[in-house]
Amino acid sequence: MNLDLREYSVRTDLAVESKEIAEGANGGPVPGLFEDIDELDGVKITRLDVQNDAASEKIGRIKGHYITFEVPGLRNQDSELQDHVSDVFAKEFSGFLNKIGIQPGAKVLIVGLGNWNVTPDSLGPLVVENVMVTRHYFELAPDQVSPGYREVSAIAPGVLGLTGIESSDIVQGIVERTKPDLIIAIDALASRSLERVNTTIQVADIGIHPGSGIGNKRRGLTKEILGVPCIAIGVPTVCYASTIVNNVFDLMKSHFNQESGGDQGQSKQIMGLLTELNEGERLGLVKEVLEPLGHDLIVTPKEIDEFIEDIANIIASGLNRALHRAVDAENVNAYTH
Q: What is the overall mean pLDDT for the chain?
């Protein structure tokens, strides 16, 4: 019997994970994919450039520039580490703006995608609550605006189920009236790795598709649609049950191998045929288990309430510092906390 496993394939919105999957299938590096990695006091920064169509097709990601910040220590809710991550994010984001040709005085519209009534999906609206908006000052009292600030506006358009209007249509109307030079869209993502949920931030210059993290393919916020460069900022806050099952198989296999001193036979004796299942066979097993429920399950960690506030503040603080040269760390912390 041939099972249709497309619905249960390992899903991820992170470019670094797509690269890992492609390299595993390819047996080595993917041509046309440039990677640069830095480590800064607990923050791993991966800069990934998808340089041609062949590389884009291999990893399933649009050509463009991606930056991923991985900070496992964020799970510990260390306020000093959070400030450090915000500082690193601000510096990297400023460099990212320069790299894609955004001028220091460019007008910016920040769009917080997601549903503020659903905690794992409330990242975008929470960031919008904490960013420093200045457009009204430039409109009403431009002569009183100090040097070092730029024109920034922000909107949390809600979700289709609440408003009956596509987020892209709402943003397009705002773009036509306010004429920003850049859109920054913030949204929650899905990851294939449990370790990256709640600890990772991705920045990309390819725009964003609302709902893509949970499999909804709808009209996106992209330069092609809106006529304005679009930067996407995302944080994985959920994981699919099928993905967790794959991770658990690997973790158990690794654990038993380690406990048995690398004795594959003993590991197989404990796990049986599970050690020999490939990804497709694992997903077939997941489908068999989940099919009676009618769908895959989307899972978020129990500490999501605390995490989502912390990560929203980190991103908002970093954006404030990157977009407004006059804003220093002390002022941002006072503003966002």
A: 84
